[in-house]
């Protein structure tokens, strides 16, 4: 039992929140690429991404896991991204901090999703049972490369001037 619910229910909610974070994060990323500030989607993305990390700490453990380290990093990034957006209103360099930090937080969620896919999907697990085999490494490198390109483009295309009009 976690928070008064069966572990399977808690896990299901955690996964739903994580998928909502990834989905809304992709919408926000494409908004950046189009020079649009999507306030509603951004709020959903930031909220669900915080909740993803926080709920990840709710599972019973006996030691710090790599997933917890990713959660700590994500929460640290979000502790900068959220004030960049809502406290500093994307002024000056905070725009770039917001875009790059948001993209990195989204990348971390996708990184963990790929890890989980290789743990839970039988066909992927068969390809990389220890997650140090080439298929797993290639998948993670492809995801990283995609995010590096998207982040660079987003940082260049998302401008305050266009963002204020949306």
Instruction: Give average pLDDT, whole number.
Output: 93
Largest sheet: none
The proportion of residues forming helix, as a percent range, comes to over 70%
Low-confidence stretches: 162-166
Tally of contiguous helical segments: 7
- Could you give the count of β-strands? 0
| Integer tally of domains | 1
Question: What integer value in Å does the Rg equal?
Answer: 17 Å
Shape descriptor reads: globular
State the oligomer.
single chain
Structural class: mainly alpha
Q: Name the beta content range.
A: under 5%
Distance between the termini: 44 Å
Order of helices and strands: HHHHHHH
Properties at a glance:
single chain, 166 residues, mainly alpha, globular
Descriptive overview:
The chain has 166 residues and is an all-alpha fold. It has one domain (7-164). It is 78% helix and 0% strand. It has 7 helices and no strands. Helix 1 packs across helix 4 (94-120) and helix 3 (66-87) packs antiparallel against helix 4 (94-120). The longest helix has 27 residues, at 7-33. The radius of gyration is 17 Å and the shape is globular. It starts with 6 loop residues before the first helix and ends with a helix. 27% of the residues are buried. Mean pLDDT is 93; it is low at 162-166.
Concise account of the structure shown:
With 166 residues, the chain is mostly helical.
Topology of helices and strands:
Blueprint: H1 7-33, H2 39-56, H3 66-87, H4 94-120, H5 122-127, H6 134-157, H7 160-164
């Amino acid at each position: 039992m976690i928070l008064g619910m069966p572990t399977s229910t808690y896990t299901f909610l955690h996964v739903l929140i994580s998928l909502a974070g990834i989905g809304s994060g992709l919408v926000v990323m494409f908004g950046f690429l189009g020079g649009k500030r999507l306030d509603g989607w951004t709020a959903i993305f930031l909220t669900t991404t915080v909740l993803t990390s926080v709920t990840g700490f709710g599972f019973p453990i006996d030691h710090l896991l790599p997933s917890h380290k990713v959660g700590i990093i994500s929460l640290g990034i979000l502790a900068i991204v959220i004030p960049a957006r809502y406290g500093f209103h994307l002024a000056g360099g905070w725009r770039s901090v917001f875009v790059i930090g948001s993209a990195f937080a989204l990348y971390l969620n996708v990184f963990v999703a790929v890890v989980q896919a290789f743990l839970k999907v039988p066909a992927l697990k068969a390809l990389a049972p220890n997650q140090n085999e080439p298929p797993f490494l290639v998948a993670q490198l492809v995801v990283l490369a995609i995010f590096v390109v998207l982040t660079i483009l987003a940082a260049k295309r998302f401008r305050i001037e266009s963002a204020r009009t949306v």
